[in-house]
């Protein structure tokens, strides 16, 4: 009996466009992203590809050019990841989260600094890359401030958070699921302790997405238990040839992309565990 199963996939032309956009953004648009993915800047990457093509004789195929081959190989070496991760994670820059830091303020200011738990604190936004290293922080907001409001402020600042279009950060449900910020589904289980034990396995695609989202986000934001972090310049230098995301905007296209990704991930998981 043949038990081989094939994974349903996105139409080839769509997959090609998605892959083409992902590689273009990674290789050409930002030194920050290129270093994060390949451990070298764009100029060094271009020199390496030139040598491989003209000296070593590496050539493009009908569907993958030399730059894509080299980028994929370097990403595997740099991050010790599998091919399935390569397909899905090139566009993920990392994760962001808020952290409350207790402070002493004048009595008249306490209402605005009071958090949902009744503590007097400041709301600290921390952004980590996929390795868990801080790439941006924004402090000083009152504890009562909404997470989405603080994120809008971070994007609007002159030297604020930079998110190249085509890329995204993982964030919790306190933020909108908008271009550049991939949030979990509301109304579904999310925290990792809720999935412990075979009896608590995901029962639908949205639950599975939330479980994987929570796991990845926790791994990347574990560094955000702030204690004696250096309080120097929190911005990071980046050179980008395209427009960065300037504001939070929810769109049908972004929501549909999340839904498509969710269904694909869940189908793969079901078939692998059948």
UniProtKB/TrEMBL annotation:
<dbReference type="GO" id="GO:0004518">
    <property type="term" value="F:nuclease activity"/>
</dbReference>
<dbReference type="GO" id="GO:0046872">
    <property type="term" value="F:metal ion binding"/>
</dbReference>
<keyword id="KW-0378">Hydrolase</keyword>
<keyword id="KW-0539">Nucleus</keyword>
<keyword id="KW-0479">Metal-binding</keyword>
<dbReference type="Pfam" id="PF13359">
    <property type="entry name" value="DDE_Tnp_4"/>
</dbReference>
<protein>
    <submittedName>
        <fullName>Retrotransposon protein</fullName>
    </submittedName>
</protein>
<keyword id="KW-0540">Nuclease</keyword>
<dbReference type="GO" id="GO:0005634">
    <property type="term" value="C:nucleus"/>
</dbReference>
<dbReference type="InterPro" id="IPR058353">
    <property type="entry name" value="DUF8040"/>
</dbReference>
<feature type="domain" description="DDE Tnp4">
    <location>
        <begin position="97"/>
        <end position="219"/>
    </location>
</feature>
<dbReference type="InterPro" id="IPR045249">
    <property type="entry name" value="HARBI1-like"/>
</dbReference>
<dbReference type="GO" id="GO:0016787">
    <property type="term" value="F:hydrolase activity"/>
</dbReference>
<dbReference type="Pfam" id="PF26138">
    <property type="entry name" value="DUF8040"/>
</dbReference>
<dbReference type="InterPro" id="IPR027806">
    <property type="entry name" value="HARBI1_dom"/>
</dbReference>
<comment type="similarity">
    <text>Belongs to the HARBI1 family.</text>
</comment>
<feature type="domain" description="DUF8040">
    <location>
        <begin position="33"/>
        <end position="93"/>
    </location>
</feature>
């Amino acid at each position: 009996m043949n038990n081989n199963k094939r994974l349903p996939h996105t139409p080839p032309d769509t997959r090609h466009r998605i892959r083409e956009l992902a590689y273009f953004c990674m290789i050409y648009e930002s030194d920050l992203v290129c270093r994060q993915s390949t451990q070298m800047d764009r100029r060094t990457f271009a020199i390496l590809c030139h040598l491989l093509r003209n000296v070593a004789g590496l050539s493009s195929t009908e569907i993958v050019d030399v730059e894509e081959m080299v980028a994929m190989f370097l990403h595997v070496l740099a991050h010790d990841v599998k091919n399935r991760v390569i397909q899905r994670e090139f566009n993920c820059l990392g994760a962001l989260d808020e952290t409350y830091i207790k402070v002493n303020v004048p009595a008249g200011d306490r209402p605005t600094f009071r958090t949902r738990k009744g503590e007097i604190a400041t709301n600290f936004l921390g952004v980590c890359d996929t390795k868990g290293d801080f790439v941006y922080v924004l402090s000083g907001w009152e504890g009562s401030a909404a997470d989405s409001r603080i994120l809008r402020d971070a994007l609007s600042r002159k030297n604020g958070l930079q998110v190249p279009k085509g890329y995204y950060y993982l964030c919790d449900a306190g933020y909108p699921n908008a271009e550049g910020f991939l949030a979990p589904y509301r109304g579904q289980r999310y925290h990792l302790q809720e999935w412990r034990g075979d009896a608590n396995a995901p029962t639908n695609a949205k639950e599975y997405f939330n479980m994987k989202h929570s796991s990845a986000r926790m791994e990347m934001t574990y560094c955000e238990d702030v204690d004696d972090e250096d309080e120097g310049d929190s911005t990071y230098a980046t050179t980008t040839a395209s427009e960065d995301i300037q504001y939070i905007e929810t769109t049908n296209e972004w929501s549909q992309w999340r839904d498509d990704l969710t269904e694909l991930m869940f189908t793969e998981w079901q078939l692998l565990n059948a």
